Amino acid sequence: MSTQPVTYPAPLSDLIPALARAMAVLHPGWEVPGIATALTRAKVELKCTPQELATAAIEFARRDDLTTPALFPHDGPHWHTGRTPNVRVKREPCPTHVGQVLGECRDCVAEQYGADDVPVASPEETAALRARIAGRTKGTKV
Fold first, then answer.
1. What digits encode the pLDDT tens for the residues 21-48?
2. What is the DSSP string of 4-49?
3. Angle between helices 32-46 and 12-26 (to 10 degrees)
4. Does 4 map to a domain?
5. How many domains would you assign to the chain?
6. pTM score above 0.70
7. Are 42 and 49 a contacting pair, CB within 8 Å?
8. Host domain of residue 131
């Protein structure tokens, strides 16, 4: 078996829609356009190879605990497999709020929407979500 990286004759623009469709099959409920956006964002931000992108995408889609493909570009176990050892997410700190990550800063969101406008789930919505999560994780090993 060769240790040379596999190359694909198809351009990356063909790979992303194909991966998005594969991820939608592996994780029903995710929509292809949202998956494609997350894949494109990861490719642009991380500058990973097509092989790394595909491996991480399949690993990510196999996780039952995830409810959205939007988390794909963020650091996680899907980027730290034996086949994606060189991919690391460079997380920049928020320039305004110490201890927060740029693009994920809760204080920036609160300032953007106003403290009273930040959406908060009602107790009923929270209970329903917890029940749904508990139902999805029954019988799985942690």
1. 999 999 988 999 999 999 988 887 877 7
2. SPP--SS-HHHHHHHHHHHHHHHSTT--HHHHHHHHHHHHHHH---
3. 130
4. no
5. 1
6. no
7. no
8. 12-137
